[in-house]
């Protein structure tokens, strides 16, 4: 039974009312636009930015040559994916608060306390020209006592970006330093292969690129979305120098 056959006038009025209540096409388009825009903002995507190419790279402590520091722990594929730097005079006990510097021109793409095993972390994205192509790397500085830059800042080679820390008392004071080939790593070691396909040996990279061809112009930085560990409330382990003085 067709209800419209018995009450045609009523149905016609309802159809007209229903049509009039539909939002205009432009209004619906705007709703869709703002919905998509909000999703992009929530995921932390950043508008592509351009930066000058790096003219070369220095060490992240006591630049240019890290003369006042030594590596207490080096890079190892499948294991320790960076280098730990401490002061020559006094080791970890005399490293807390020492300045940390950007290894080259770049843009700060991460600067925050991500807690867990990282603490205060800075990631800087660099562009450099080599063998006729523009290449990109991320330099990572972890366990910092303080952060002196913010995300989106442009930094220069040798600019102070923070200071050496101990991840809120979890470790003996040192700078944990990494260089990433894979620009999606951020602070997520578990999501990518722990090999030289994704990482550089930091000292080797810097020594071979103390000076880069300073090609005129700028490079457009590729975008990335890092998986950031979710912070939780915890009581950091206190460092007792007598028991752990040999570990860095």
Specify the biggest β-sheet: 8 strands, antiparallel
**Integer-rounded radius of gyration:** 26 Å
Might you state the CATH topology name of the largest domain? Glucose Permease (Domain IIA)
**Poorly predicted runs:** 17-21, 35-46, 230-248
Order of helices and strands: HHHEEEEEEEEEEEEHEH
User: Beta-strand level of the residues, as a percent range?
Assistant: 25-35%
Annotated CATH architecture of the largest domain: Distorted Sandwich
The level-1 CATH class of the largest domain: Mainly Beta
Structure overview:
There is one protein chain. 19% of the residues lie in helices and 27% in strands. It contains 5 helices and 13 strands. Strands 2, 3, 5, 6, 7, 9, 11 and 12 form an 8-stranded antiparallel beta sheet that branches. A hairpin with a 2-residue loop joins β6 and β7. The longest helix has 18 residues, at 25-42. The radius of gyration is 26 Å and the shape is globular. The model is unreliable at 17-21, 35-46 and 230-248 (pLDDT under 50).
